[in-house]
Design brief:
2 copies of one chain form a homodimer. By secondary structure, the first copy, chain A, is an alpha+beta fold. The first copy, chain A, contains 5 helices and 3 strands.
């Protein structure tokens, strides 16, 4: 499959098209959750600056899932791609949902055995 | 693989083992979301009484995913299996999360095109 040129507009769903099940699916992966947690603490970040340890192609896939679910917005500026959280759009569509999920994500992970 | 006998105890995670990402994954499927919505409105139901239209083996799979994620509790009584929502356990572990997701699930679905 040809690689889309840098000038191809990136798909972002309109706020009213944001689907709950797609959001839940997007956030059910630990790398994608880390990306969203990181963005919740900073307005906009360049793509190489996230604290995740995955191959670039895997990272691109995760960004695409998050973008197509409506969780993040990406824009290109020169050779860099900038990413931000669509917190306002999400809150307008599903009030309080993202905040509650992020709160829950800061709860201690399950203990392996007790 | 041998089918487990009816006397095999069903696995239910302890409340402190309930994992957020597993919950999000479990709820990202429309059939499983319908099961949880249905249970939120009724204390306990027999397995054949859910308004979903999938094959019995598929339904069993969905119940297992929900049970192992900690969203539902199942018990056997004679030849019937009864299912209930673990709302209290979930609320103790992730306060307000399930309620917020269920609220969001009642928001209108995205329009196909506008």
């Amino acid at each position: 499959m040809p690689r889309p040129s840098r000038s191809t507009p990136l798909f972002h769903p309109e706020p009213e098209q944001i689907d709950l099940l797609e959001i839940l699916h997007a956030l059910s992966d630990p790398t994608r959750m880390t990306i969203v947690q990181t963005l919740a603490a900073s307005p906009e970040r360049a793509c190489g600056t996230f604290p995740v340890h995955v191959a670039p192609s895997t990272l691109s896939h995760h960004f695409r899932v998050l973008r197509e679910a409506g969780l993040i917005r990406q824009r290109e500026e020169g050779t860099r791609r900038w990413t931000s959280l669509r917190a306002d759009d999400l809150d307008a569509r599903y009030p309080g949902l993202l905040e509650r999920i992020l709160d829950a994500s800061h709860t201690a992970s399950p203990s392996p055995t007790s």
